[in-house]
Design goal:
heterodimer; A: alpha/beta; two-stranded parallel ribbon; 8 strands; globular; B: Rossmann fold; FAD/NAD(P)-binding domain; 4 domains; five-stranded parallel beta sheet; 17 helices; 26% helix; 25% strand
Amino acid sequence: MKLTYYPGCTLNTVAKQFDASAKKSALELGFEMDELSEWNCCGASFPLTPDNIMGLSAPTKVLAQARKAGDTVMTLCSVCYNVLKRTNKVIRDDTDRRDVVCGFIEEDYDGSIDVLHFLEVLRDRVGFEKVKEAVKRPLEGLKAGAYYGCMLLRPFEDMGIDNCEDPTIFEDLLKALGCEPVGFPNKIECCGSHLALGKDNEEIVTKLSGNVMQSAAGSGAELIVTSCPLCQYNLDGAQEKLEASMPGYRPVPIVYFTQILGLSLGQSETELGLDTSRWDARPLLKEKGI
Amino acid sequence: MARIGVFICQCGKNIESTVDTKKVADEMAELPGVVYSCNYRFMCSAPGQEDVKKAIKKHKLDGVVVAACSPHMHEKTFRRACEAAGVNPYKCEMANIREQCSWVHHDTTKKAGTAKSIDITRMTIERLKKNKPLKKISIPVNKRALVIGGGIAGIQAALDIAEGGREVILVEREPSIGGNMARLSETFPTMDCSQCILTPKMVEAELHDNIKLYTWSEVEKVDGYIGNFTVQIRKKARYVDEELCTGCGDCLVKCPFKAPSEFEMGLATRKVIYTPFPQAVPNIPVIDAARCPKIQKGKCGICEKVCGPGAIDYEQTDQIVTEEVGAIVVATGYQVMPTARFGEYGAGKIKDVITGLHFERLASSAGPTGGEIRRPSDDKVPDSVVFIQCSGSRDEAKGVAYCSKICCMYTAKHTMLYKHKVPDGQAYVFYMDIRAGGKRYEEFTRRAIEKEGAMYLRGRVSRVYERDGKVIVQGADTLSGDQIEIEAEMVVLASAVVSRTGADQLAQKLGISYDRYKFFNEYHPKLKPVETVTGGIFLAGTCMGPMDIPDAVSMGSAVAGKVLGLFSAEEMAREPITASVNTMICNACWDCVVACPYTAIEKEEVRNKKGEIVRVNAKVNDGLCQGCGVCVAACRSKAIDLAGYTDEQVYAAISVF
C-alpha cells in the first residue's frame, strides 16, 4: 500500500522526529508514505468567514496537487488535517466557492479526494490488531496520557474521525502498543497554541496549557502523547513556566504518537529523536525497563 | 337533462368586493342543465339555506352547486340542507370562489374576479353532472377498547372508558402498570406525592369490572379497521400462575439472586423473581428468565419450594391471545435520553452524573435511599448538586431540536426537594431559558430561586469530569460573562424526553404516522389533537410529545370521550369517498398495495367452484380506505377510481375550457 503524504511545514522543520518516526513505522506496518513532490503550506488556519476565499486557496492547491497523485492524501499534523479536510468539504459541496478558488489558483479540482490522518490509517486500513501483532517491544507499565487537543476532532460534522466529546482512538492505539493509556479530563481541551503568537496572550496560554498538563499529571500520566506539533511545542514551553511557578510540579515528556509507535516497533531512541525533546523521555523509559 | 340549481354567495363583502355575483349567477343561468340560479348575501345563514331547500322543491332540482367558500368550511352545511330537501348530499358541490378567487384578487373593477368565478363555477357544474348519488357507509362497531400502555395517560383513558360502561383491554409491557409516574417522588407545582395520587388509580384500574388487565404483555399484531380491530397480544411468560399467586411475597424474600432493578434505574437491585415496586399492580411477581439459574440451568428452584399456593411454573411459555376491539388508544409514554449520550458530561461513566428520573428515585421515600439524597458512587450526602437543564433538549447536535417542556419545572422541584432534605446543601442550575408556562408554574420556579436558595446560572455547561472525588462542572454564566467552574458532589442532567425505543415499530403495526423523533402524529395539531389519521386509533400522553402529568391526564380523558362517542351508536356512518378496483382491468401489479398509506388494499383471490384460483386482483377495504387517492395515481392500468372524485368527474371539469 502506497499513500500520498502531505507533511506540512512543521514536519520538515521543528517536528522532523514526527515525520521520520512515522515514515519508518509505516514501512514496518506494510505501507509506504509517498511524499508529494511539490507542496506548499496549508495556511494553518481554516477561514471561518465564508467570504474569505483567499484562505482556501493554499489548502486547495495542496489538495489539487494530491489529487493528481491519487484519491487519498494522508497527513500527520492535526492542524494540516483539520485545514485540508474542512477545505476539501467546502470545495466538494459549495460549487460557487469552488469556482472562484479553483479559478484563482488555476487548478481543476472538485473535492474528490479523501483526506486521512495517519491515526485513521492505522485504525481503519492497517487495524490496531495488526499493529499489536507487529509490536516487538511492548511498552508495559508506561502510563501514557492521550492528548487530542482540539484540531483533530472538531468540528465533529467535518472531521468525524472519532466522537469529539469522548474519543478513544488514541487510547485504543496506546493499548495496542502495550501502554497503559490515561484518558484525562482535559484531553480534548485546547492548549492555547493558537494564541501563542499573539501579543499579551501569555497569561491565557499559560493558563490553558497549564490546565491540560495539570489535568494529565493529576490523572497519573507519566508522558503525553500528541499528534499536533503546535500542542507539542506549546506544552513543552508551558511546563517550563509551571515548573517555575508551581512548587513540586514535575515536567513530563511530550512526544508524538509515532515516536511511541516506533519505540514499540523496535526503533532506537536516537532514530526516533527522543534525545531532541526538551523534557527527555529516556530516563522514564529506562526506569520502566523499556 | 340535469336540473341544477346554482347559488352564488356574496359572503358579505368577502366575495362581492371583487366578484360581481349577480353577473356570475346570470351567466350560469344560461348553461345547459342549469334551471335556477341566484346570488345572496350569506348563503350559509339560515335564510340562505332555506332558499336552497325552497329552490330544490320549487324547481325540482337534482343537483346543487354553491359557489362560496372552501368546502372545508361549509360543504357539510349545504349537503345537509340538500339531504333535508330530498337531494342526495353527494349531488351537492361547492365551487370555491372565496379563498381561491376573491381573496387573492384585488381588482375592484371586479373584472378578473368575476371571470375567474365564472370559470370555477362552470367547472363545478360540469363536474356535478357526472356525480353519482353516494350512500354513507355504515360499519358495525365493536364496543370494546384497547389501551396500549399503562402509564397515567393510559390508566386515565381506561378508567374513563370503563366508567362510561364499555369494556377496556389495558396492555402494559412491564410487570406492573404505573409507568414513569410511579417513579416520581413529588409532583410540581403542588408537591404532592406522586405514588399517593397514582396508586389509587392503579388499584381502581385493577379492580374495575370493565377493565381487563394484561401486564408483562405486548401488542403483537393489529388487523382490521375502525370499529373492527383484531389484536394479537403476546402475554410474556411470567413463570408465575396469575390465578394461583396470592402476592404474599415469600418468593421475593427467599430468592438468593439479585439483578439491577429497572424500576430503580439501576440505583438498586431487585431479586430475580420480583415485582418492580411494592405497590405493583397486579401484585404478582415475574421471573427474570435470563438470570434465573433454575430456568437457565435447572439449578435452584427455591421460589417453587417456598410458594404456598404452588403458583411457580418454570414451564410457562409466551401465550398469544386474540382480542376483538372497536377502538385503540395508544399511550406508550416516553423515556429519557441516557447519560451515555453525553460524552461531554462523562458519557455515563461518572457514577455521580445521573438523570432527573434517577434523582426522582433518590428523593422518593420508597426509593433505594429511603428518600435521602445520597450520591450513587459512595452514598455520601452531596453538599452541592449541579442541575443541567436542556441536556439534549433544544440541541440539534444531540438530534433533539424540541423543548422537553417538563424539565424547567421538575428541576425547580428537584432543587426544592434537595434543599428540604439537605438544608445546608447548595443547588446550582444551569439553564438556557426558564419556560414555566402553566397554572402556578412561574410562581413555583420563582419560589425555587427566591425563597429556596437555588442558584440559577444562565448558560451552558461545556464539560463535566471527575477530580479527587468531586464532579467538576465547567460552564459559562452568560449574564456576567464569566467562565464558571463548580466543584460539585453530584450532577443531575435534565435529560431530553425522547420517544420509547420501538415506538416506530408499534406505529408500523398500527398504521399510524410518527415524526422524525418517533413521536406519534396527531391528526391535527389544534383541532384533532387526540386522533390519528387512521380511523379508530387515538393517542394519549407523552407518546406524541413531551408533556406534564395534567396534560397527559387531560388527553387520557379526552380520548375516552372520543372512544365513548364512537361507541355511542350501533353502527357508524362514514364518508363514502373510498376507492374501488375495476377487477376486470386490474393486472395485479400490487403497486397500489405498496402505495396505500393505510394498508387498505388487499390481494384478493378469486376461485372457481372447484376452489382453484382463477384470478388475483386488488381489493379495497372500505373500512380502512381514507379516500386519499394515492392508489388511483399509482395504478398504471387505471383500474382504480375514487368515489366522488372519479376520472370522469375530473375530465368533465377540465373540459369546460
